[in-house]
Write a structure and sequence with these properties.
Number of strands: 0
Distance between the termini: 23 Å
Helix content: over 70%
Oligomer: single chain
Shape: elongated
Radius of gyration: 14 Å
Largest sheet: none
Order of helices and strands: HH
Structural class: mainly alpha
Length: 61
């Protein structure tokens, strides 16, 4: 796998985990620990998006 494919896969996994946390929050609410984990996932997702955009910019001049 090249680095772009790895970033895309990581993005997919992060989005799936974030969606799960949102559904849990809507249904039962999140504990403090779960809330911290959720925010960490969102931060990682944003960082991953930034890295993917940088890779796209490197490929297309």
């Amino acid at each position: 796998m090249n680095s772009t494919a790895v970033l895309e896969r990581k993005n997919e996994i992060l989005r799936r985990n974030i969606d799960t946390m949102i559904m849990k929050n809507n249904k039962d609410g999140l504990s403090r620990q779960e809330n911290n984990f959720y925010h960490t996932l969102v931060k990682e997702w944003h960082q991953n998006q930034h890295e993917m955009n940088q890779k796209r910019d490197e490929i297309t001049p």
